[in-house]
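Sequence, please.
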């Protein structure tokens, strides 16, 4: 309960800050329009050349799949690695370790609060705009779509936080973890279906996206495909598995990190 109350206060404070100072929202909106808009126009042209269907998938489905990826990207959960790295490099980590709160819980709640407002605004406004411009695929009218979409977002978000927390914790042993971040982030980007939607993946690449934590963190992009109706439980199970694994990895690394701080006089 203490952790939940802490998280609520952090999110409440940060969301109010973002409402009063919308600079981040403006930046993210421009970024989404520039990147997603260009991709949308490109794929619209390609689908026109292919008579509206590629690999049995329509343009509407592809558009929504990519939209979910870019809307989720706005949450900026991956930035937790940078915050942890800065805490370690500045020595602030020793002060935070001494506080009567869980450092990792504090940083995760902070990251959620940092991106929640712009995520919700862009998801709602962008979704309504896309529905008017492109339309809604039939898969989004299914009764299980909204509930499973929410579960995929929650589990995917938790998996992203854990994955990038692992990257951030490596800062206790590697001074600059940016190279590790670049590798992990590109894997999430490629296997998550950012620029090439998963429906267009070659078979071997789709299997990697399906079974790896990088692809599993972006299963929200799978929710608009027809296969989701029969595969949603299986894919959510994969997300749960990787959340469990990453939780263990984070716990081990964090335990070793605390020992390292203690040994070095922190």
């Amino acid at each position: 309960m203490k952790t939940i109350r802490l998280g609520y206060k952090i999110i409440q404070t940060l969301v109010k800050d973002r409402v009063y100072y919308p600079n981040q929202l403006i930046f993210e909106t421009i970024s989404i329009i520039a990147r997603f808009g260009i991709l949308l126009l490109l794929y619209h042209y390609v689908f026109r050349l292919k008579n509206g269907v590629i690999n049995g998938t329509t343009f509407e489905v592809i558009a929504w799949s990519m939209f979910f990826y870019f809307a989720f990207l706005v949450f900026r959960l991956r930035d937790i690695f940078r915050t942890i790295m800065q805490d370690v490099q500045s020595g602030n980590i020793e002060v935070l370790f001494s506080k009567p709160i869980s450092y990792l819980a504090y940083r995760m709640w902070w990251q959620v609060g940092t991106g929640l407002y712009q995520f919700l605004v862009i998801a709602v406004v962008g979704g309504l705009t896309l529905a008017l411009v492109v339309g809604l695929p039939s898969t989004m009218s299914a009764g299980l779509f909204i509930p499973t979409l929410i579960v995929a977002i929650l589990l995917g978000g938790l998996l992203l936080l854990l994955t990038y927390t692992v990257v951030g914790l490596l800062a206790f042993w590697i001074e600059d973890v940016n190279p590790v971040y670049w590798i992990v982030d590109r894997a999430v980007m490629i296997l998550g279906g950012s620029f090439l939607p998963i429906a267009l993946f070659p078979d071997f690449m789709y299997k990697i996206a399906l079974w790896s934590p990088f692809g599993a963190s972006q299963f929200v992009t799978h929710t608009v495909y027809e296969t989701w109706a029969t595969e949603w439980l299986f894919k959510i199970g994969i997300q749960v598995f990787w959340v469990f694994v990453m939780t263990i990895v984070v716990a081990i690394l964090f335990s070793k990190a605390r020992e390292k701080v203690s040994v070095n006089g922190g």
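Residues 2-263 form one domain.
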